[in-house]
Structure formats: C-alpha cells, structure tokens
Design goal:
single chain; 4-stranded antiparallel sheet; 2 helices; globular; CueP family metal-binding protein; CueP-like
C-alpha cells in the first residue's frame, strides 16, 4: 500500500515538473504568453541549449519528445518554412526530415558565405556570412511555396542546389558536396 502511494506521488511530482518546465519553454522568448516561440525552441534544441529525447521538424510541425517521453507537436507558421543544410566535403548521410537531436553534419562551427535566390530572381540573401552550428547544419527560415537556388562557399570550395518550400518538401538537405 505504501509503495503504491509513493509511486503515485512520484508520478504527480513528475507530471507537475513537466508542466512547469513546458510552461517556461512556451513563455520564454515570446511577447504572447502561452505561445511557443518555435524559432527559438528550434535553435535552442539544435544548439544543445534545450534538451529533448528527440526532436524533428517536417514541413508543417516541430515534434519534440521530452526527456519524460511525452511528445508535443508544435504547428509551424503558415508563412515560413524551415530548412537545414549541411554542406560537406567527404561525409554525409541521407535525410529528408531534419532531426534536431540526431542529424550530424561534417563541418561543425564552420564559416560559410550563403547566397539564396528565389525562382523569380529575387535575392533573399547575398553572400551572407553564416556559421554552421555544433551539429554541422545551417538553419534557414524562408517564405513558403517557392523554389530557391542556394549556393554556399567554405574555404574556397563551393556547392549549389535547388530546393522548394512547399507542403511535404524536405527540411534536411545533405547533398551539397563542396568542391
């Protein structure tokens, strides 16, 4: 009987702790109480500033499984699309849906110059200095429902590819071999 009460008490404490932690994540970095700042949460998980058992991001949702194995789905903006790019020289992995907690790129904390144009020729970013994260990926938030051409340069080597930001498009690009 005492054992059952202790287990039940432990579960209540764990649930309350999860609720309080989730509440802090939701309020942190946003002007709208109760709303999650998805971009900040994605960045924090990718950078290791927030922990999760697993976290992945597809074209419409961020799916986070906490250390308590509870899964929370966050809907992404209707206007912006997330894509993560891992340029490489020798090593890559096949990927379509980016795992914030699992995908590892070859060039960690590397300096890149990034240029992005849409299919109509509009410049989204021009030779912008960016640094890959400790997971080797460069994260971008771009307008939805467009096709883009991206080029990256790193230490005298370059790669270029085309990708789209339509519903069901990939959020992980690991095919840009620098040469």
């Amino acid at each position: 009987m005492k054992k059952g009460i202790l287990v039940a008490s432990g579960l209540v404490v764990a649930a309350l702790g999860t609720y309080l932690i989730a509440g802090n994540i939701q309020r942190e970095g946003t002007d709208n109480p109760g709303k999650t700042n998805i971009k900040q949460l994605v960045h924090d998980i990718s950078a290791g500033k927030a922990t999760a058992q697993s976290a992945s991001i597809n074209s419409s949702q961020l799916i986070v499984t906490g250390d308590d194995t509870q899964t929370v789905n966050y809907d992404l903006s209707d206007n912006e699309f997330f894509v993560s790019i891992a340029p490489y020289v020798e090593q890559t992995h096949p990927c379509a849906t980016h795992s914030l907690t699992g995908c590892q790129g070859e060039i960690k904390n590397g300096a890149f110059n990034v240029t992005v144009h849409d299919s109509e020729g509009n410049v989204i970013m021009e030779n912008t200095a960016m640094k890959s994260q400790s997971n080797g990926f460069i994260d971008l938030w771009l307008p939805r429902d467009k096709t883009y051409r991206i080029s990256v340069n790193h230490e005298g080597k370059a790669a270029e590819t085309e990708f789209s930001t339509y519903e069901k498009n990939d959020t992980c690009i690991t095919t840009m071999q620098l040469g």
